[in-house]
Amino acid sequence: MEQSPSRSKKSIAELKGLLQSLSTQEQMRLPEVLSKLAVERLYPIMRELELEPALQEHLIWGYFREKMSGVLVISDELMAEILQQHRDSQRIVAESLILTAIKEEKISLEQLLEAEAFSTVLFALQENKVEAAALKLIQPPAAGEKNRKRKQAVFDRAQRQAKHN
Asked: Which domain of life does the protein's organism represent (predicted)?
């Protein structure tokens, strides 16, 4: 059931008060003692909760380590999410997650570079840094093509930008 914006803000304020009532040591243990579901629900609203930077690091680590556990290879989507977290927060935890995944052979350096390349192109498109003539060169991906979702996202963004030029 969808909460109203005022109810949602009230709930966040109540949760923020509860978290602030915990000692720093208790806060740092939260990602370890909370359920997987609780961490998944806290992660998207951690900025609104104005958590201490160290707690945010622990929460980010817990959130992504859970997503990475039990998989042999990290999906391109998860890699993109980790890289986006790094760009958004500039926290060292994202770098640590990537290094851990490389050590555990869950991602390859090639996969990491590919993900970063797509992210860079999307960023350039979002910032309107791609010339109109170059936008016309971006083609839709073929069915079953490797990195189809990423290529589709780049194509869609290029199409939207071309319409506005």
From this structure: Bacteria
Average pLDDT for 29-45: 90
User: Please, how many CA atoms are within 13 Å of residue 148, restricted to the half-sphere of its CB?
Assistant: 4
Long-range contacts of 86-91 (CB under 8 A, 24+ apart): 87/119, 87/123, 89/56, 89/60, 91/53, 91/56, 91/57, 91/60
Phi, psi of 104 (to 5 degrees): -80, 5
pTM for the full model? 0.72
Alpha carbons 20 and 9: distance in angstroms, whole number: 16
Listed by start position, the domains of the chain span: 109-165
Calpha distance 74→6 (Å, rounded): 38
- Cβ atoms of 42 and 49 closer than 8 Å: yes
| 85 within 8 A of 52, measured Cβ to Cβ | no
Q: Evaluate whether 106 touches 71 at the Cβ level (below 8 Å).
A: yes
Report the alpha-carbon distance of residue 64 to residue 61 in Å, rounded. 5
CA dihedral 140, 146, 150, 153 (to 10 degrees): 20
SS3 37: helix
In this structure, the number of other CB atoms found within 10 A of the CB of residue 62 comes to 21
